Amino acid sequence: MSAVALPASAPAGEIKPRKAPYRVMPGFKLSLGFTILYLTLIVLIPLSAIFLKTFTMTWEGFWAAVTSERVIASYKLTFGASFIGALFNVFFGGIVAWVLVRYKFPGKRIVDALVDLPFALPTAVAGITLTALYSSNGWFGRYIEGVLGIKVAFTPVGVVVALTFIGLPFVVRTVQPVLEDAERELEEAAASLGASAFQTFRRVVFPTILPSLLTGFALAFARATGEFGSVIFIAGNMPLVSEITPLFIITKLEQYDYAGATAIAVVMLVASFIMLLTINLLQAWSRGRNAK
């Protein structure tokens, strides 16, 4: 067996240390510094400005601004409708992702492209379109209201419809790659061992896609809580009935009550952060459980 030849410049018995692997991007310190600087300019400073403006208020003024009857009603509608819309998207978005991954049918590429339509469509256009469809004389609204007796446009139901529309792509695009990478051999093995279709889904498929479903729920919920353009047209914006919190913040700004607007924004920011933190903890718990 021939010996490995050492480089001519290296003394006998000594091996030169391997050089660091070639990286396209700059080193860690420079990249980390740029990341922190960018996040500071884009995220931390604007959020800090909201808190600093709110701190100019007294505690009594802050509490009065964020707990008035009209503001509480807008909280309930915004977070409640966002939560319901995200739940709808988890269920139906999961089905859409499953169909797009597991089945072949004519027009599949068109359906796949339509999923991204809420991303590309301006929110104001989406709001006007939904209002035209679900109003009392709209294509859908005339039958829903006439047959079922449910009024959609200019009610909290319309808010849920709009928030479900804009949140669907987040769930589908989060679950879809997980289903594509899932090992179908495990499903076939479960079926060969006598498991029913429901048992295979519950014990094999669902644990695999659960973290992605939670991620999609978090993204859809976060997107919905800050939605404005697609909601104001279909909501009707009636105080204490169908007025969302982002619209109430705009109303405060139009009244030059900047401190009151930032106070409400702080409440929404903290509530959204707590919700996202809770979902991230659930994701970590789910991954740890599946890894065992």
Automatic annotation (TrEMBL):
Gene: cysT
Transmembrane residue ranges: 28-52, 72-101, 113-133, 153-172, 204-222, 228-250, 262-285
Protein name: Sulfate transport system permease protein CysT
UniProt cross-references to Pfam families, sorted A to Z: BPD_transp_1 (PF00528)
GO function terms (MF aspect): ABC-type sulfate transporter activity
Main location: membrane
Function, in words: Part of the ABC transporter complex (TC 3.A.1.6.1) involved in sulfate/thiosulfate import.
Assigned protein family: Belongs to the binding-protein-dependent transport system permease family. CysTW subfamily.
PANTHER family, A to Z: SULFATE TRANSPORT SYSTEM PERMEASE PROTEIN, SULFATE TRANSPORT SYSTEM PERMEASE PROTEIN CYST
Residues annotated as domain ABC transmembrane type-1: 75-279
Membrane topology: Multi-pass membrane protein
Cellular component, GO, one term: plasma membrane
Location(s) in or outside the cell: Cell membrane
PROSITE patterns linked to this entry: ABC_TM1
Subunit comment: The complex is composed of two ATP-binding proteins (CysA), two transmembrane proteins (CysT and CysW) and a solute-binding protein (CysP).
Keywords, comma-separated and alphabetical: Membrane, Sulfate transport, Transmembrane, Transmembrane helix, Transport
Entry annotated with the keyword Endoplasmic reticulum: no
